[in-house]
Design a protein that fits this description.
By secondary structure, the chain is mostly helical. The longest helix has 18 residues. The protein has one domain. Helix 3 packs across helix 8 and helix 6 crosses helix 10.
Length: 220
C-alpha cells in the first residue's frame, strides 16, 4: 500500500523515441545517469533509451527553475553555449589520487555484490583507468536530454552534441567498462556535489540483455 505509484508515459513520447540504429547507439552516452536521475525526478523507469524525457505535472518546470541554473543554463542560448564549452574543455588526461582509486574499487565491489553482478571486468578496468573524462561525458549525455526535453535545444542540436560525446568516448575508451570506471573516478575523486546511482544503473543495464549498452559496443 505504500509502494511507489508508477507513471504512465504518454504514447506520443514512446512513438517519438524510436530511432534508427545510427541514432539509437548515441543514446548509450548518458544512459546510466539518465536512468537513475530521471527516475528520481519523475518516478519514470526505462528512460535510458529516450532522447525526449517525459516530465509529469510540474516536474519539468522545477528542473528548469532549480536544477539547470546550477549549470548556468536559463534559456536556449545558454544551454547551447554551456554544453558546447563543456565538451570543448573536458579533461581526459588528469588522474585521480591514489586514495580515491581505493574508493573506486570499494564502490565497484559493493555495487556489484549488491546487484549480483561479477565485478571482475570492472575491477580490471579500474586497474588501468585512472582518468575521469567520462564523468563529464556521461553527465552531459543526461544534460543534453534534459535540455532537449524542455525545449532548450532542437532535436538536431541534441543529436549533434551526443555524436560529439560519442566520438570523444570512442577516442579515449576501449569499452563501456573502461568508460564507466572513468565516470566513477570522477564521482569519487573530484569532490563535486554531483551524486547519482549511475554505477548501479550501469550494472543493472549490463544485466539486461535488451539494453543499449549490450546492443551497441563502444568499439566494434
Amino acid at each position: 500500500m505504500f509502494g511507489r505509484k508508477s507513471v504512465a508515459i504518454p504514447k506520443e513520447y514512446e512513438h517519438f523515441n524510436q530511432f534508427s540504429a545510427e541514432k539509437e547507439r548515441l543514446l548509450c552516452i548518458g544512459s546510466s545517469t539518465t536512468e537513475c536521475k530521471h527516475k528520481v525526478e519523475t518516478k519514470v523507469d526505462g528512460s535510458n533509451k529516450a532522447l525526449k524525457l517525459y516530465y509529469p505535472k510540474n516536474r519539468g518546470a522545477k528542473v528548469m527553475k532549480y536544477w539547470l541554473p546550477m549549470f548556468g543554463i536559463n534559456d536556449s542560448y545558454s544551454a547551447s553555449q554551456v554544453i558546447s564549452s563543456w565538451i570543448e574543455v573536458n579533461d581526459y588526461y588528469s588522474v585521480i589520487a591514489a586514495g580515491d582509486c581505493s574508493s573506486v574499487l570499494r564502490e565497484i565491489t559493493k555495487t556489484c555484490q549488491k546487484n549480483d553482478y561479477d565485478e571482475a571486468e570492472l575491477l580490471a578496468s579500474a586497474g588501468k583507468i585512472k582518468t575521469y573524462g567520462a564523468f563529464d561525458i556521461e553527465r552531459l549525455g543526461y544534460l543534453v536530454r534534459v535540455c532537449f526535453s524542455l525545449d532548450l535545444l532542437s532535436e538536431q542540436q541534441a543529436w549533434d552534441f551526443l555524436e560529439q560525446l560519442w566520438d570523444a568516448a570512442v577516442l579515449h575508451y576501449d569499452n563501456w567498462d573502461d568508460y564507466i570506471v572513468s565516470f566513477v573516478n570522477g564521482q569519487e575523486g573530484l569532490g563535486t556535489n554531483w551524486y547519482s546511482d549511475t554505477l548501479v544503473s550501469y550494472v543493472q543495464l549490463k544485466k539486461d540483455t535488451s539494453s543499449l549498452l549490450n546492443k551497441y559496443q563502444l568499439k566494434e
